[in-house]
Amino acid sequence: MKNSKFIIDKLGKLFEQGIISSKDLSSELFNILKSKRDEIVFKMKLTSKDEFDVLSKRVENLENKIKKLEIKKRKNTKQAKRS
Length: 83
Hints:
Layout: H1 2-17, H2 22-43, H3 49-76
Helix pairs in contact: 1-2
């Protein structure tokens, strides 16, 4: 219940600030969830803060590379010709 209230409060603040577009809303929601994930991992003390920062940066770089490769793959695929 506490977590759902946290998310609802964050969404309420976003609407108060006037973020209406779905793209803005989805990116803000993604950022909120990402920060909550980071907070949970840090509280579990699985790694030190320095290690966590390095690992999160590496994951971010890998996610960016995957996105670039997906875009490149979409551009390289050819559509079938209609006869």
